[in-house]
Amino acid sequence: MLGMLLGALVLVLLLVLLVGMLLPAREQVTRVELFKAPVAEVWEALNNLPGQAQWRTGLKSVQTLDDDEGLRWVEQPLQGTAVVLRKTKEIPLQELILELQQRGIHATRQARLNNVPGGTRVTFTQTLQITMPIRRLLNRFHGGVDNRLDGFIRQLRVKFSA
Asked: What average pLDDT does the segment 44-68 reach?
């Protein structure tokens, strides 16, 4: 009886691993959003990393690290473990690229800002690459890269609607 139970458990684990291996390691999603606010205000919200703890739900704190002239910071979520991010490109009022690289995960979020009639158009592109198959499957169960980017945009939208 115990042998059958262990065999079934191993079979389930192998099935999870196989499904994870069949999922693509890299995902990318792009969203174009219009915010009814000037470019400078949208830029400030995106670039003021410690200030994001005030409008991003689920984010407990943001701490800038001193070892890299402010280009790295730690985000502490309300639940889960802290993540270290890096600002890899910054063209003021035009483009911002942030990167996360941690335990088999590499993610980037790019925001390109354009002044348009009625506000600011922001093109967000987020990529996620996960090397471990089981983490790929878990990521899909949590909505994947689409869900994360949509949540970020929704919270940014709420900030400008208040």
From this structure: 89
Return all residues near 160 (Cβ < 8 A) that are at least 6 apart: 35, 36, 37, 41, 42, 45
Classify residue 2 by burial, with Cβ atoms within 10 Å: 0-12, 13-18, 19+: exposed
Q: Over the stretch 97-133, which tens digit does the pLDDT of each residue have?
A: 999 988 888 999 999 999 999 999 999 999 988 888 8
Integer CA distances (angstroms), 71 to 38, 84, 106, 109, in order: 25, 11, 17, 15
Side chain identity, residue 47: N
CATH code for the structural domain at 2-161: 3.30.530.20
* CA distance linking residue 10 with residue 89, whole number of Å: 45
Q: How far apart are CA 137 and CA 2, in angstroms?
A: 28
Number of Cβ within a 10 Å radius of residue 61: 13
**Listed residue (125, 47, 129) closest to 91, CA to CA:** 47
Q: Does the CA dihedral 73-78-147-26 come out positive or negative?
A: positive
Residue 162: pLDDT above 70? Answer: no
Task: For the full predicted model, state whether its pTM sits above 0.90.
Answer: no
For the stretch 82-93, pLDDT in tens is 999 999 999 999
Cα atoms in the 13 Å half-sphere on the side-chain side of 83: 17
